[in-house]
Amino acid sequence: MTVVDIDQLVEQQLSTGKIDPRAAEQKSNETPTAKPINDDQNAIASTNFKKEAHFETEKLEFKMLKKLRFYLEGLVKHGGSDLHIKSTSLIRGRINGEMVPLSSEVLSHADGLQLAKEVLKSRFEELVENKSVDFNYKLDDKYRFRGNMFFQTDGISAVFRVIPVDIPSMKDLKLPSSIEKFCHLKRGLA
C-alpha cells in the first residue's frame, strides 16, 4: 500500500478537503502476511499469555502509549472516527468513511502485547481470560474513546472509536420536533 503519513493527511485534507482512498490501496512490499497457527502453537501461545497476565504496572515504560497518543490525536485532528491497530499490520484510521493507513509502521506481536498491557493495566488478565475486552479511554480530558482489544490469530488487535465530547442537539441533528417527544417518554415502546 502507499502509506499516507499523518502529516501528508493534513496537507492533503487542507488542500483538497478530502482524502483519496485510492492513494492508500496500492500494496506495499513491507506488509506482512498472517501465518496459520496450528493447535499446538495456539496452546503454547495461550500458556505464555497466562504467564504474562500477572505483571507489575510499575515496571511499564509506557512507550506504546506515547505512540497511541500520537495516532489518536492525529485521528481526531483529521475528523476520523476509528483507529484500527492490529499486530503484524499497518496502523489504519477511518477518515471520511475510508480506511486509510496512517503510518508505514507495522506493529509487532510484542508491541501489540505491550500496548494491551499499557492500556488495560489491571484488566489485562481479563483480556487473556476472555480473549476480548471493552473499555473507555480518555486522552487529556479533551477526547474520549470507546475501545475494544481482542485476540486474532496473528496477535492482539485494538479498535478505538471517537466519542464526541459535545453531544449534538436535536436542532443540530436536523431531526423533526416530533422525534424529541420520544426522548422524554418514561414508559412504553420507544
**Strand arrangement in the largest pleated sheet:** 3-2-1-6-5-4
Order of secondary-structure elements: HHHEEEHHEEEH
Distance between the termini: 46 Å
Q: Please give the number of β-strands.
A: 6
- CATH architecture term: 2-Layer Sandwich
Number of helices: 6
- Please give the radius of gyration in angstroms: 20 Å
Mean pLDDT: 76
Question: What structural keywords apply?
Answer:
single chain; 190 residues; alpha+beta; Beta-Lactamase; six-stranded antiparallel beta sheet; 6 helices; 6 strands; 25% strand
Would you write up a description of this structure?
The chain is of the alpha+beta class and 190 residues long. The protein has one domain (6-183): Beta-Lactamase (2-Layer Sandwich), CATH 3.30.450. Helices cover 35% and strands 25% of the residues. It has helices spanning 6-16, 39-52, 63-77, 109-120, 124-130, 177-183, and strands at residues 82-86, 90-95, 98-106, 132-139, 143-152, 155-163. β5 (143-152) and β6 (155-163) form a beta hairpin. α3 (63-77) crosses α4 (109-120). The model is unreliable at 19-47 (pLDDT under 50).
Write the layout of secondary structure elements.
Elements: H1 6-16, H2 39-52, H3 63-77, E1 82-86, E2 90-95, E3 98-106, H4 109-120, H5 124-130, E4 132-139, E5 143-152, E6 155-163, H6 177-183
Antiparallel strand pairs: 1-2, 1-6, 2-3, 4-5, 5-6
Helix pairs in contact: 3-4
In short:
This protein is α+β, with helices and mostly antiparallel strands.
